[in-house]
Structure to design on (280 residues):
């Protein structure tokens, strides 16, 4: 391998985000959002999201929930959409340009580093499927807390990927999960972070915490398959380069997923999630 290729390989592996960014990520994030939209909106309502608030969507990705945040805080409120990735922010910005209100500001920042947003300026910070991709989630939580006004609220939603409940023991889904877990271990991130979310926020010194666990069954197996295949196309190349799966094994896994039934009486798939609300 040439020196340049070796350097690029190290950079590729050093990036702890296993998924795609920009256009390749957009459709999957939208499909995923369509599944969790209702629960996320309810979670935000429970945390008191309302008119006139200043809020931040941390790790906003391609902006799946910005329309809801923008509309709910209204013309007297403001939304900051923060992501470390420029490719994600470009798509989020494009989407937001079609919204009726002009109350969103986009910020490219790494939330584990000191943030340029004013300290104690936010009523609410929202982060969905963010901490699972970060090696030092404590640092991200510390920065998010510093941005909240006293009494402000942090709303977090994370998965427990190992707790996938399927109506039948599909071996392809088990192997998919095991490969993802091996990749997470290699990258030094925790795809089961939902399990320790409460403890992480307690250790960060929030005054009050409310946690609930949800298992939203996905009965549309064709959609589940589509999401699995899209995810595989995103994290697969990284898993190969990380050495947690061989190219031919990944191809076999892809075929096994393709072979999963699309319609089956009473079939469902559910991933456990933790929904946390923490008051500063
Ligand atoms: C799985 S996506 C979720 C996007 C969005 N929250 C949603 O639910 O549709 C995670 C996002 O977090 C961003 N991200 C990862 N690490 C980050 C960091 N350290 N600071 C800010 N954003 C980060 C990624 O670029 C990606 O857009």
């Amino acid at each position: 391998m040439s020196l340049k290729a070796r350097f690029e390989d190290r950079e590729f592996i050093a990036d702890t985000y296993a998924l795609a960014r920009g256009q390749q990520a957009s459709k999957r994030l939208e499909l995923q959002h369509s599944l969790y939209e209702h629960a996320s909106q309810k979670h935000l309502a429970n945390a008191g999201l309302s008119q006139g608030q200043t809020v931040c969507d941390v790790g906003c990705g391609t902006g799946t929930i910005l329309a809801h945040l923008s509309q709910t805080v209204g013309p007297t409120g403001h939304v900051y959409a923060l992501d470390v990735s420029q490719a994600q922010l470009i798509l989020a910005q494009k989407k937001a340009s079609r919204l009726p209100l002009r109350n969103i500001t986009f910020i490219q920042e790494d939330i584990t580093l000191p943030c340029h947003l004013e300290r104690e300026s936010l009523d609410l910070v929202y982060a969905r499927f963010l901490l699972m991709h970060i090696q030092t989630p404590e640092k991200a939580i510390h920065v998010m807390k510093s941005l909240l006004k006293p009494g402000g609220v942090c709303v977090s939603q994370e998965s427990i990927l190992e707790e996938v409940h399927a109506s039948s023991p599909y071996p392809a889904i088990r192997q998919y999960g095991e490969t993802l877990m091996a990749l997470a271990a290699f990258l030094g991130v925790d795809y089961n972070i939902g399990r320790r979310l409460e403890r992480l926020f307690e250790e960060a010194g929030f005054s009050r915490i409310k946690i609930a666990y949800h298992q939203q069954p996905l009965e549309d197996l064709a959609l589940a398959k589509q999401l699995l295949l899209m995810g595989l196309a995103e994290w697969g190349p990284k898993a190969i380069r990380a050495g947690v799966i061989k190219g031919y094994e990944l191809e076999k896994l892809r075929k096994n997923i393709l072979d999963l039934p699309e319609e089956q009486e009473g079939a469902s798939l559910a991933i456990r999630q933790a929904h946390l609300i923490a008051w500063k």
Remarks:
- The pocket of S-adenosylmethionine is lined by residues 17, 19, 21, 29, 33, 59-61, 64, 83-85, 88, 110-112, 128-130, 133-134 (CB under 6 Å).
- The chain has a mean pLDDT of 92.
- Residues 23-46 form the longest helix (24 residues).
- Residues 179 and 244 are 7 Å apart (CA to CA).
